[in-house]
């Protein structure tokens, strides 16, 4: 892995994170659907909500690392983005950021009583409630919303710059190829003109 490029290093990690997230989030959703009003384990509700956040935020942060690494490599020509130290530090920071964002989830998630006289249903479900500590809940979801907005904006800005750099590179290369083609055509015409002049010389001057 030491000599591998950023793509070969990060893409398998992203694939593994996506696979884990797909399996966990899918299983979590199915379990919640089966136990919509029979969720009785308080600890399990807290733990699953925390891992739900991790499974969501870790792949997002890895994608952000890939975007930053591509920006450094393509737009800024910084070779340190391909070093193993940069990659490992980036992954550690991604995991730390994901943990920090997901850690408050167990504190805003709890077992919520469900009562429906119409359907004669009484039970418990795992989720966030508008009752209780509204300030902490609102602050957390505002922070998560800002995180999402900043992340999406960063993706747009970085990949716009990358696309512009690639477009400018190919435009410059095409211009150089056209210039070389014109120079080659001029040289070819000059050679043909010289040959024609030599053929037009009288025999006594040759």
From TrEMBL:
Gene Ontology MF terms: G protein-coupled receptor activity
Biased composition (Basic and acidic residues): 178-200
Region annotation (Disordered) ranges: 177-206
Transmembrane segments: 9-31, 51-68, 89-108, 139-164
Pfam families tied to this protein: 7tm_1
Membrane topology value: Multi-pass membrane protein
Signal peptide interval: none
Domain G-protein coupled receptors family 1 profile: residue ranges: 1-206
Keyword terms: G-protein coupled receptor, Membrane, Receptor, Transducer, Transmembrane, Transmembrane helix
Subcellular location(s) per record: Membrane
PROSITE patterns (UniProt xref): G_PROTEIN_RECEP_F1_2
GO CC terms in record: membrane
Protein name (database record): G-protein coupled receptors family 1 profile domain-containing protein
